[in-house]
Structure formats: C-alpha cells, structure tokens
Design brief:
18% of the residues lie in helices and 33% in strands. By secondary structure, it is of the alpha+beta class. A hairpin with a 5-residue loop joins strand 6 and strand 7. The N and C termini lie far apart (65 Å).
C-alpha cells in the first residue's frame, strides 16, 4: 500500500477543448502552472442604458444585460530550475521559458486548425473551475541569460467567461420577455423580424422603435445594437 504524497501541491491547470461542451481535449492539454498565482481577480459587470429624458438631473437606468465575467491572473514561468528538485533534474530535460510560452500560446491563443477559432478553456485549481476563452495575454520577460534567452517571464491573462449557452440560459433564465435584451442587427434584419425573435410576437414593434429612437421599422443598418425593453406584465 502506497503512502499519499502529503507534500504535493495542487497546481492550477488550464484545460483546452475544441468544442464549447468541453468534450474533446486538444493535444497538449492541460497547461500546468509552474507556480500557483498569488491572486485571482474576477470581475462582473451589469450594463445599463440611461433613460432619454430632457431637462433635470433625474435619470433611471434601464438594465440591458449582464456582461460575461472576466478572470485575471498572472502565471510565473522560470527557467532557472528553482522549482525542480531531486531526481527530476537527473532524468528529464526541463523546458525553456520560451518553450513554455509557445506551448501556452498554441493551446489557448492561436486558432485551432480544425475549428479556426481559439480553444474553449477551463481553469481548474482545486475546487475552483472557470469555463472561459482567452481575451488577452501579455508576456513580460523579467530575466535573461547571457545569450539573450529568457530565464524568467510572467504571463498576464484575461479570460472571458464562455460556457455552454444552454447551461447559461438555464441558470440565468434569460429567455423571458420580462427582461431587457440587446441584439446586433445583421444583414436583412427588420424590426418586426427581430421583435418576433425576441418576444415571439411583432405586437411590441412600435415600443421597440420608440426605445431605440427609430422613425421607421425597416432598412436597419447592420452592426447596430438595438435594445428590446421588458414587457409589462
């Protein structure tokens, strides 16, 4: 009977998948942190639009939507071997800092050849999990060898929440006409068509037009975001 490794430290891992349901892992997954981050910063934002009133200082903010939350964390990469002890150095060839950076970028940043999109990610650290995609990464090189190769670097990551849409809608119950919706106008869209999609009826079309300051219901400009206000009960 083996003894448990009481001194093993649980490392933060970033798993990468080719599908939003996170069923098919990508080669090279997971990326394991050399050192666990000192902090995890999670930001959540509600988006409001001010009422279009005239005069006075009183405004009522209309809820538009909840933006995907962000997770910020920094990962330290070290090529001096300080994190490796004992027999590890005798029987393995440690990766350089640049190799570790390239591995991470290939896994999380670069579009995958089969999907032509960056990977779907899951950050896992003990009981903490966060389904996301990489929004941005900044590489700060902080130490160099005599030949100019990096000995130490820090990855500054911003990860946007991006889970399975069905799970998100089930958890948030956002299919209700009693909450505000924001929709992007695409080519060929008309206001009656978009209103039908949101509310299941074209009856509120004039109310939607007023909420967005429109004087017509057809010929919408693609790329514009329209607000579909909640319906009174």
């Amino acid at each position: 009977m083996g003894f448990p490794d009481l001194f093993k430290l649980e490392k933060l891992k970033i798993f990468a998948y080719s599908d939003v349901k996170r069923k098919t892992a990508i080669d090279g997954s997971p990326f394991e942190a050399m050192f666990n981050p000192q902090t995890l910063t999670r930001s959540s934002t509600n988006i409001f639009t001010p009422a279009k009133g005239t005069g006075g200082g009183v405004q009522s903010a209309t809820f538009v939507r909840t933006a995907p939350s962000d997770l910020q964390l920094n990962l330290l990469l070290d090529g001096t071997g300080v994190e490796e002890m004992g027999l590890v150095n005798l029987f393995s060839d440690p990766k350089t800092v640049q190799q570790r950076i390239d591995d991470f970028l290939a896994l999380a940043y670069q579009p995958q050849s089969d999907t032509h999109e960056p990977s779907y990610l899951t950050v896992q650290w003990g009981k903490f999990t966060f389904e996301c995609r990489l929004s941005s990464v900044t590489v700060n090189y902080t130490s160099f060898d005599r030949d100019g190769s990096a000995l130490r670097a820090e990855l500054e990551l911003t990860l946007a929440a991006d889970g399975d849409i069905a799970k998100q809608q089930s958890a948030a119950a956002l299919s209700s006409p009693d909450v505000s919706h924001a929709r992007l106008v695409r080519g060929g869209d008309t206001l009656p068509l978009m209103t039908q999609r949101v509310y299941g009826s074209t009856q509120p079309v004039l109310r939607v037009a007023r909420a967005n300051g429109l004087d017509h219901i057809r010929g919408l400009a693609p790329g514009r975001t329209l607000i579909f206000p909640p319906l009174a009960r």
